Protein: Microcompartment protein EutL
Organism: Paenibacillus thalictri
Amino acid sequence: MLDRIKAEVLAVRIIPNVDESLAAQYGLKPGFRSIGMLTTTIDDIGYTALDEGTKRAEVEVVYARSFYAGASHASGPLSGEFIGIIAGPNPDEVRSGIEAIEHTIQYDAFFEALNADRTHALYAHVVARTGSYLSRLAGIEEGEPLAYLIAPPLEAMYGLDAALKAADVRLVKLFCPPSETNFGGGLLTGTQSACRAAADAFRESIIGIAKQPVAY
């Protein structure tokens, strides 16, 4: 079993009644005037957690971006490698969304280390039921299962091929390397069991590369 690498929430703020000009820039829908924002040390965990927030509260994701070069080269101590912003009709709903996001980051989503110093890692996370954010990103219906697969560039492309051949899944979003954080990967959909089989194949193929990187 690979060691887990958890993300850390670095900063959180809620604005109960956001300025009208900012609301317009974020494209907030009528009645949504409260926003919550947070930064984390790992972007893909942040995206996964934002989606969970949309399932637990009346909120939607209005902004989510990775920062260039990753947390090791962050612009400040509270920047990390990701910012996410959600909006809702009132502060209570936004607070509930933030709490769901924080819970996912703390307990449910994690990278896995391929070496002792944790500098080589992968993300093979299965979302049993997507919320509004990942569904929109993947172009699928809300509530569909999703395999969220991320790794360093070569490992990601090789692993995706193994995942697609291992189960009855289809690729709905490709993250061509390099991403802002110099990784790559994709989103696959199918039944929940198929997504888990695909994630397992992705993981095992990359473990093989880590053990013998030039033995092709």
Remarks:
- The chain has six helices and ten strands.
- Residues 152 and 183 are 4 Å apart (CA to CA).
- The longest helix spans residues 192-211.
